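Same chain as my last thread, 260 residues:
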Amino acid sequence: MGDIFGLLITGPLGSVLSFIYSFTNSYGFAIVLFTIFIKLILLPLAIKQQKSMAEMQKIQPLLTDIQKKYKNDKEKLQVETMKIYQEHKVNPAGSCLPLLIQLPIIFGLYRVIYQPLTYILKMSKEEIAKIAAELSINVRDEIKIAEQMKNINLEFLGLNLAQTPQFNAPSVIWIIPVLAALTTYLSSKLTSTATSGSQNAQAAQMTSSMMTIFPFMTGFICFSLPAGVGLYWVISNLIQMLQQVALNKLFAPAIKEGKA
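reply #2:
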């Protein structure tokens, strides 16, 4: 399974990142351009997801009515709910499927960014293992190995992207996990605004809880990983926010006119 995953996802993504690095000669700028490229590739899925949420938002008043009408008859409620979905040609899972498709790509992205020797310099496992042993560094910590070898430019806007923003690291590198947490919150806020009309009370409450939990989780994770991974997270969130603002404006008129 790992070989198939690498062949279909991490291999091609690694080749793209390697190509970008070849003319930027900067790990940081390569990550920025790489993230923009990936977001463009995934844009059709994002549009499809937003369209599905807009369709759900349009029929939410109808769903609310039948939930009140058949609150004591679960079987009838289910039948009437499915009838509304069919009449309005709405797929309730339509907003989830694009996200599920993106998950393997997201996992592949982190692997590619976390393993620059493998995917940028195309070094073999044997070569990496030999150098790791000589430097007494964990073979999986390729960014640290690259930092010691100085064969990849890990400096970005005065930050060393090989450093992990822990308490013994320079405080300036802490800006990465802080920005990651902040942009995660803002991105979630924009997304929740777009979906607020398509959610019931329980789903809305869950969304609100996630908006509180995810930023803290993001910050914690980015405090335990090299700053290069956190940089991807920050750039991805910033692009996501711009994308969400544009999609909100694109679909808002259609929702009001009943044409989404």
